[in-house]
Amino acid sequence: MNKATYTEDVPPDRFELLERIISLERLAKVMLIGATDSGKTTLLTFLANRLIDEGLRVAVVDSDVGQKGILPPATISLAFPEGPFESIGELHAYAHYFIGTITPGSYTGEMAVGVKRLTDMASEEADVVLIDTTGFVTGPGIEMKRLKAELVKPELIVFLERNGELSHLRRLLSPYGEAVTLSISEKARGHSRSERREVRREKWRAYFSNASLVEVDLSKTVPTGTELFRGRPLTPEERDLLSALFMWLVIAGWRGERYVVVKADVEPGPRQYGRSVIHAVDFERLSNLLVGFIDGSGLCLGVGILKWINFGEMKAQVLTPLPADEVGKAVELRFGRIRVLETGEELGLLRREEL
Predict the structure, then answer these.
(1) Is 109 in the same domain as 241?
(2) For 128-173, how does the pLDDT look when each residue is reduced to its tens digit (9 = 90+)?
(3) Domain with 150 in it: what CATH number?
(4) What's the pTM?
(5) Which are the contacts of 245, defined by CB distance < 8 A and separation ≥ 6?
(6) pLDDT value, residue 326
(7) How far apart are CA 219 and CA 315, in angstroms?
(8) Cβ proximity of 98 and 334 under 8 Å
């Protein structure tokens, strides 16, 4: 299921934008900005197909991590369409950057860096780079858009709006590229939260349809994106003391800047302890956690679902569609912040500070 498909039944200002892009006698980086369900991906699909028809080499940077067209979700992806396409869901990724969540409000830096890196890669081969962004245009989303624009410096920044609701953002981004404002098509329709969730469910399921379990040696593939595994292992005395004080089963622990423990509660109820001294992670929160296989250049080879960690042997069981030779290229196993099943069911989001 994809929300946006190719159509030429679009408002006239889309054709004016197309001509503006074609008229640029240099690499054209075009960033699309609009609220959720404003038609950004439909516009991107229209522009890409028409530009391909003009004989131009087009690159697509899909950074809408919550409603990704190019698999998998929770990443930023780069693709080079080889010909006309109906939906960006048909495109095969050339490269990914791992974000690890579908709600990137706490990942402003990673989102900006990911878009910058993939846009730089695209610029080496493409005539036009089309950058799709999230519908996050309020709160932290404003700073996220500013950082992306400042790093990428697009030739055109396209704003899709109805009643000037993006005027503040347009002023904020004006130093970084020429602003173009388009109306939102009357054919654009809103999608409920459950509909968007169902779209993601199908994409998760498609991505993991041919997945298998692999064993990852965490003494060789470094676990990142988490405070776990930092510092020295806890002594038996420290583990016993923490277990007695807080009625925990301490499964693993380390002493670095503070005590970090993976635990299960022996008895229910709140525990009082200083978060600056102890960071406690519930063992069940690690189950079915999205992880990224990261190569030596910091790009994401693919994602997997963490099924089990043997802390004593530093081995992890991960479900992934990546072939063994690709898994072997990973130098990091980066922890995300969404728990998901291979059937596509999302089990919940974690806050950044939880791991």
Answers:
(1) no
(2) 999 999 888 888 889 999 999 999 999 999 999 988 889 999 999 9
(3) 3.40.50.300
(4) 0.92
(5) none
(6) 94
(7) 8
(8) yes
The DSSP 8-state label assigned to residue 80 in this structure reads -
Structure tokens at 2: 């994809």
Cα–Cα distance for residue pair 73/193, rounded to 1 Å = 16
The reported pLDDT for the residue numbered 8 is: 67
Give the sheet arrangement for strand 232-233, strand by strand: 232-233, 248-255, 259-265, 278-282
Contact 29, 51 (CB under 8 A): no
CA of residue 312 relative to chain centroid, distance: 31
Same domain, 105 and 178: yes
List CB contacts of 147: < 8 A, sequence separation 6 or more: 108, 109, 111, 112
Its domain, for residue 55, covers 12-203
Instruction: List all residues 6 or more positions away from 165 whose beta carbon is below 8 Å from its beta carbon.
Output: 35
The residues, ordered by sequence, that sit 6+ positions from 133 with a Cβ below 8 Å of its Cβ are 31, 32, 33, 40, 63, 64, 115, 145, 148
DSSP 229: T
The CB density around residue 151, as the number of other CB atoms within 10 Å, is: 16
Closest by CA to 59, choosing from 77, 41, 72, is: 77
Contact yes or no for 312/304 (Cβ under 8 A)? no
